[in-house]
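Suppose a classmate hands you a notebook page containing two proteins, each written out with its sequence and a corresponding row of structure tokens. How would you begin to make sense of it? This section walks through that situation. The first entry is reproduced here exactly as it would appear on such a page.
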Amino acid sequence: MKTVKFRFFADYEKEEKWVNEMAAQGWHLEKFFLGRFTFAEGEPGAFIYRNEFISLSGAEKDDYFEFLRDSGITIINEFGGWVYMKKATADGPFELYTDTKSKITYYKRLINLFFLLFLVNAWMGYANISIFWDKTEKVFISPYIGILNILAALLMAYPMIKIFQRKKALEKDQQFFE
């Protein structure tokens, strides 16, 4: 039996936690696409799921995926750089970043991604709204597009701030233990 759930998460760690809660109830992720998650019924708690943003391409990405497969990890689905993967619970813990330094580097990559998306949307929003208010311009661009861009920019700010806070906490812990 299969089920489809629609959820939108601005925090990728909360999304991952929810997918793992679904797995604990016996619903295993098969694919995802823009807030649409397809699950298949199976043994409760059989797998641990992780999601990761991968900025690699070509041979580097293929090598990384091969490394993951060799480690007993199954790639479930990839969309827009985000990859969901699973590993059998019986195989032990499943962490993609086992040391603080690599986790901080990953957080920096995510912050850069969300910051870029924030800037593009904020700029496009400003441009669309300012063109609308410029009465000398003959081109009409709906201010609603600009408002949507501004809302998208604000939406990008939320995960960026959350990830920045997590990164700072890790850096603080790292300094404490050094």
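The notebook's second entry, a different protein, reads as follows.
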Amino acid sequence: MKKYIIAIIVLLVPLTMATAAQWPDFPFLFAVGTATKEIPPDLATITFDVEAFDENPEKSLDIVKKRAIELVDLFNKLEIPKNDIETYEIDKRAVRQEKDYVELKILGYEVKQKFSIKLHGLTRYASLIEKLLKYRNISNINAQFDVAQRKELETALTTDACANAKGQAENMASGIGTKLGSVFAISDRGFNELEDAFGMSNSSDKLDRMFKKSMMTGDSGQITFIPSTIKIGKQVNVIFKLESK
């Protein structure tokens, strides 16, 4: 189901409080059109850290290396392609004792390596997350959901948002006895001066990747959740010229 949100501001005369660089020097109408669609996700990107701490940096490094080997074995069992697995350079940090914001002696060394796993289809999501949760030395597990056809969906939503903005603008122009003219400017990032002056904000980012609700995967013994839908949205900001009828 698609939903539309529209905000219209009609300016019949140039505003004296604005400079020529900020405002058009002719009567204009500013329309904001938004189109959204809720769709089940079919992609997931899981990120997490493998980290260890010890007084001896070699021991910390050995733990991280051992856990990485176990993870590679897990990925193979889940048949996750190598191209969908990203690892980052190992980072080592000295952890020092502090007193009154002054660093004192070294307590030990923290070694960390970051992983990023992309899943095409979510059938393996629950198994991967639950196994990661059971491993020691794994932290900061995070999942982002998306759809494979995002580009095509955003293109269609942009067209819908433009059509909606134009239709609403035509109604407003007709209601005040004017005629909608040509498009002076259009943007999917907003016109800051106009939005700031009228207390409006560009909310397109907030519409993107929103969860509608979640559902538990698998049987009742599992603790992982996948959103049943995510909301994808596009917003367009259009400045139309106004003409007399």
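A careful reader of the second entry would note: The longest strand covers residues 225-244.
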